[in-house]
């Protein structure tokens, strides 16, 4: 495992920790899109179908369990915790995420490397992950006061996939059997590009020492 | 299987 991949995974982990910290300590999920969180839970379920059958490394298995467990605990907090769920801003979270699921499923059935159940589900998870942040980005744009933890959460999440792209370049250059990943690369590039606008305003607000606010 | 075994990333 190269440093880009590891740093990417750590950023991903950090984003989840930041979000859970906000929810658990502040007992608030204000500004967080439940729809994006539902999409991530679905992404992890479909991608980690092999969690108990295909062993890669202890690191991989543990990380998969951590991502699945954290995704479901976030969902539980936002939907069922008696204090946290009242801070969820349902009216601002209006993205039609079922259309994303449908579109990604159709695309996965049409464009994949291999037509097997596991491979199509894996491909679906790659497509869905690329666009899962959209409800959250829309919600951020509507939120007047984005708190630091929410801003950092999205920033770490974007950095994670950016680092994965460096990892793919590195692996492409250093590994012999690493040439049929174009599907992941295109999706990963789109996923990272979606954050470009957010990154711009995040860095700008950080440099000017101002509160983060996205233009409507 | 080369493709399925290649899913070694998270």
Automatic annotation (TrEMBL), chain A:
- Using the UniProt record, give the first listed, main subcellular location: endoplasmic reticulum
Q: Sorted alphabetically, which keywords does the UniProt record give?
A: Endoplasmic reticulum, ER-Golgi transport, Membrane, Protein transport, Receptor, Transmembrane, Transmembrane helix, Transport
Stored InterPro entries: ER_ret_rcpt
Q: Does the keyword Protein transport apply?
A: yes
The membrane spanning regions, by residue number, are 55-77, 98-115, 121-140, 152-170, 182-203
Which Pfam families does its entry note?
A: ER_lumen_recept
Any one biological process term the GO annotation gives: vesicle-mediated transport
* Record GO cellular component, one term: endoplasmic reticulum membrane
Cited PROSITE patterns = ER_LUMEN_RECEPTOR_1 (PS00951), ER_LUMEN_RECEPTOR_2 (PS00952)
Q: Where in the cell is it found?
A: Endoplasmic reticulum membrane
The record describes its membrane topology as: Multi-pass membrane protein
Give the molecular function GO annotations.
ER retention sequence binding
Family membership: Belongs to the ERD2 family.
Q: What's the protein called, per UniProt?
A: ER lumen protein-retaining receptor
Organism the protein comes from? Ceratopteris richardii
